[in-house]
Amino acid sequence: MTRRPLRLRRSVLYVPAANGKAVAKSPTLACDAVIYDLEDAVAPAAKEEARERLRDHFAAHPESRHERVIRINALSSEYGPEDLLAARACRPDAILVPKVDVPAEVADVADMLAETDAADAIRLWAMMETPKAILNVARIAEWGETPGSRLDCLVVGANDLAKDLRLPGPGRDALKPLLMQLVVAARASGLDVIDAVFNAFRDEGGFAAECAEAAGMGFDGKTLIHPLQIEPANRAFAISPEREAEAASIVAAFDMPENREVGVINLDGRMVERLHLEDARRTLALAAMQRGT
Ligand SMILES: CC(C)(COP(=O)(O)OP(=O)(O)OC[C@H]1O[C@@H](n2cnc3c(N)ncnc32)[C@H](O)[C@@H]1OP(=O)(O)O)[C@@H](O)C(=O)NCCC(=O)NCCSC(=O)C[C@H](O)C(=O)O
Ligand SMILES: [Mg+2]
């Protein structure tokens, strides 16, 4: 499995690139990542202006404490090729490819990036939001392990998925088995996976419940549509002080001279194995990153 650098991705805010006020506000927000959207949040007549705004924004802010991602239209669409040229010129941390059905759709973007970005600095994220993506997610994630693929992260698009599956709603009970399939495929290939947006951005209770559910399912974070959702998402996907203390006690126990060579220990009446040590180290690294935000 490919090992990728650890990133905090608790809160990933979509910012419509057509909305000048929202783009200008984005550097001040306390989310971990921002997705500047050139796709569904931008009307056809506003696409060129939106690309221009992103070029100006990235030129004015070459550095950011956020992980910055640009969502382009599909390369096969009328807008995709121009979007990709504009996004590539901005040099974001990643480009998000929408409505991915098969690995080739991400591979085509990777090939175009390789023309100008030999160092693989610009990573790729892939939207999982079509019935075909659900059927092919293991292939897409596995392709992400091939050298030069750049794939780092899968992002759920529940609005498109519910539409294509003709789910009547309300709620997302019918989606849950599919969401777990995405988590399994992502983990099998060492990818991060971010849960879908929650549309009713003023429904605090509903949003908190969906964040808790997503954290319990193993998602790394949630995509967001409004600044009001940042703080609750950061809280829901945070490493709690209890989890951090537990991780520290596991690392300390395995560091004791008598435990250095053993595979399993008794820690206060619980069996702890080396697999828990690996998870504990990851938890401590994430907790340290969290303190820096
Ligand atoms: C949902 C919104 C249209 C609501 O906008 P608005 O009515 O303007 O909200 P407020 O008046 O409450 O805004 C308060 C201030 O916050 C700024 N703001 C709002 N949203 C954002 C944002 N996303 N990023 C940055 N800043 C934001 C406003 O400008 C106000 O600022 P100020 O006046 O200075 O106080 C709107 O929130 C919105 O457009 N959200 C994003 C929508 C979007 O990007 N949609 C596409 C991605 S979701 C998707 O496609 C998922 C997936 O593909 C799927 O299939 O499910
Ligand atoms: Mg979508």
Automatic annotation (TrEMBL):
Superkingdom, natural source: Bacteria
Needed co-factor(s): Mg(2+)
GO biological process: oxaloacetate metabolic process
Sequence positions that bind substrate: 71, 129
Keyword Secreted: no
InterPro entries: Aldolase/citrate-lyase_domain, Citrate_lyase_beta/mcl1/mcl2, Pyrv/PenolPyrv_kinase-like_dom, Pyrv_kinase-like_dom_sf
Coiled-coil annotated residue ranges, if any: none
Transmembrane segments: none
SUPFAM superfamilies the UniProt entry points to: Phosphoenolpyruvate/pyruvate domain
Domain HpcH/HpaI aldolase/citrate lyase: 10-227
Pfam families linked: HpcH_HpaI
Gene3D superfamilies: Phosphoenolpyruvate-binding domains
UniProt keyword list: Lyase, Magnesium, Metal-binding
Residue numbers binding Mg(2+): 129, 160
GO molecular function per UniProt: lyase activity; magnesium ion binding
Record family assignment: Belongs to the HpcH/HpaI aldolase family.
Protein known as: CoA ester lyase
Organism encoding this protein: Oricola thermophila
